[in-house]
Write a structure and sequence with these properties.
This protein is of the alpha+beta class. The protein is built from eleven helices and 25 strands. Strands 1, 2, 3, 4, 5, 9 and 14 form a seven-stranded antiparallel β-sheet that branches.
Length: 622
């Protein structure tokens, strides 16, 4: 305690980052143990001298080439190989479990502790090397969908270490990676795109998804003088820092002068990044207003009461918390005499909503005992029962008529003049977010207790589970008993997901769709049951057919921004490395080209012989 009053003196310490273990699931490769980077005995003085040699190499190249010339991969390697093994190091606890610094550096925009967003020390101290790297990236990166240069504010350069599975914290999302040098392996595993071969080619990936470097082996290389040099794997990652648009004027001007293409001081996002910014955060109030208007228009023009026209028609529409705190609806048409019943999903409700329907025998022309959204019972007076509400939701359910249990689900075969109709048997929200184990067990038991042929509709109106506590195998086993594929799609944190199936359905017979956290989705199906089956308690007489060609997936980003945004290109044919620069014209002879690592000339000028002069590369090839 402070001697003055009740003030308390505290000691502040930087909190340690805690690594959360997430087991791989559903075809995802197991996390590879992180390889400890080779310890570098180089002193800071040696590292500084090595960086100075690379700076001199880059300065010579830039001085002997035109302002529009594009460095080749060999040029970049020539500069970076001047470092040898004496690379600067970085503290990156999210990519290694050893706690030791890793060899590499970041050029461009970084978030300096206590200083905010600024140009990194590496780019300020070695501006020519930074310009060489940015010119190489601008000239060889694939163009965007609209033919523009890919915007980036930072370049991460790594040397000879394998990054463990991680997610980039300060990355807006779209990133390109390229590995250079003499090595085998070293592909990039990504959570959403699998394994990407990035050797000598740019490959697009999302820094907001888990990714890691696969094992690699450096391959010795032979110099032109006959000596053998150790191989290396150098990776370059181009990305945009999340603070790129909130810079002070001097930092913005410095980054632009160094060749970085994403740097602003007005606080506004480039249209290219607006969609990715929305995907990482929640909609603003004005954006939510646009989204609600879109949902209302969809309900008016393509709503369930207008589109569910036949008995057994079922539909579900849902979206996650990113838009209007989540929500959606589940609807079904119980009988020809009744309108569609619409069940509203409460916003901001974590877990999975489960609507269990039941088959009921009705005489032809009879009205089904169903309660609509307004609580109005549509059954004949002699069979009316009071409305009731489900225990985990905010909407009234269909009431069961006072009929023998044998007439619901496992009923006797229908008599002449009777048809199968639908009732809402139960509804429940399984809170897999706050009580994963208990809710998983409850959901599996609920599915086990269902009669064969029982229709089930599932939806997410926020998020199914926590990011650090993914859904477990018993949950996916229960989905398989409802007709999910043998390998169900993985339900990730805050993704949109919907499902229509029935108990005992064959594998893959159910309708299901998975979107992103920025997806508004709808599924439509038609359920029917044979009236001539002698085994009504079996699932073999139930049919489920889609009513639309696939799921209706709408991008929430397109809804609130108007659509048509520019996007990066991930096609393999555009990821091929750019051709080498053309030779210079005869009128301007150039000095002889050096070997990848050339000895220093006797002259007191730069320590590396200048590379040959290149012609400007046409814009169409850059």
């Amino acid at each position: 305690r402070s001697p003055v009053g009740d003030e308390v003196a505290f000691r502040f310490a930087r909190p340690r980052r805690r690594r959360l273990f997430r087991p791989p699931a559903h075809g995802e490769p197991p996390a590879q143990p992180m390889a400890e980077p080779a310890a570098s005995p180089a002193s800071p003085r040696n590292v500084k001298a090595a960086m100075a040699r690379a700076e001199a190499w880059a300065s010579t190249w830039l001085a002997t080439h035109s302002a529009t010339a594009v460095p080749s991969e060999a040029d970049v390697l020539g500069a970076l190989r001047e470092l040898g093994t004496t690379w600067p190091t970085q503290c990156r606890p999210n990519v290694t479990d050893t706690g030791r610094p890793v060899p590499g550096f970041c050029s461009g925009l970084v978030l300096a502790l206590g200083r905010g967003a600024r140009a990194s020390l590496a780019s300020q101290a070695r501006p020519q090397l930074t310009r060489l790297l940015t010119r190489f990236c601008v000239g060889t990166l694939p163009k965007t969908r609209d033919g523009k240069s890919f915007p980036f504010s930072s370049l991460q350069v790594n040397f000879n270490y394998r990054a463990g599975r991680h997610v980039d914290a300060n990355n807006i999302g779209p990133s390109y990676i390229r590995s250079i040098g003499s090595h085998d392996g070293g592909e990039l595993w990504t959570e959403d795109r699998g394994v990407l071969d990035c050797k000598s080619r740019w490959r697009l990936f999302s820094g907001n998804k888990e990714h890691e470097t696969r094992p690699f082996v450096p391959r010795d290389r032979h110099r032109e003088d006959g000596t053998v040099a150790a191989g290396e794997r150098i990776s370059i990652i181009a990305f945009a820092h999340s603070q790129y648009s909130k810079l002070d004027a001097s930092t913005c001007a410095r980054l632009r002068a160094l060749g970085f293409t994403a740097a602003r001081s007005d606080g506004k996002d480039d249209s290219f990044f607006e969609q990715y910014r929305i995907e990482r955060t929640y909609l603003r109030e004005d954006q939510n207003a646009k989204f609600r208007a879109c949902v209302a228009l969809r309900r008016e023009t393509d709503g369930p009461r207008a589109t569910l026209t036949e008995v057994g028609d079922v539909a579900v529409e849902c979206y996650g918390r990113q838009a209007a705190r989540g929500g959606g609806w589940i609807a079904f048409r119980p009988s020809a005499a009744a309108e569609a019943v619409v069940l509203e999903l409460a916003p901001n409700s974590v877990g999975i909503w489960c609507a269990e329907l039941g088959w009921v025998l009705e005489d032809e022309g009879a009205r089904v005992d169903v309660v609509d959204r307004d609580g109005q019972t549509m059954a004949p007076p002699q069979r009316r029962t009071s409305p009731r509400r489900c225990s985990s939701c905010s909407w009234p359910s269909a009431t069961r008529a006072d009929e023998p249990a044998a007439r619901v689900g496992g009923a006797a075969p229908p008599k002449s003049g009777q048809t199968w109709t639908l009732r809402l048997a139960s509804c429940e929200r399984f809170d897999l977010y706050n009580a994963l184990q208990r809710a998983t067990t409850a959901f599996a038991r609920r599915v086990d207790a269902m009669a064969p042929g029982t229709p089930v509709v599932l939806a997410i109106a926020d998020t199914a589970a926590a990011k650090s506590r993914p859904l477990q195998a018993p949950f996916y086993d229960a989905l398989r008993r409802l007709g999910a594929p043998a390998t169900p799609a993985k339900i990730e944190y805050r993704v949109a997901w919907a499902f229509i199936g029935y108990k005992g359905a064959p594998a893959g017979a159910a309708l299901t769709a998975v979107g992103t956290r920025a997806t508004l989705m709808r599924l439509d199906a038609r359920l029917s049951r044979s009236t001539s089956s002698s085994s009504p308690s079996s699932a073999t007489d139930v049919t489920l057919q889609p009513r639309r060609h696939g799921a209706d997936l709408v991008s929430i980003v397109d809804v609130v921004t108007g659509g048509g945004q520019d996007a990066p290109v991930a096609d393999d044919d555009l990821d091929a490395p750019a051709p080498a620069a053309a030779p210079a014209p005869a009128a301007a002879p150039a000095p002889a080209a050096p070997a990848p690592v050339a000895p220093a000339p006797a002259a007191p000028a730069p320590a590396v012989a200048p590379p040959p002069r290149d012609e400007a590369v046409p814009a169409s090839r850059r």
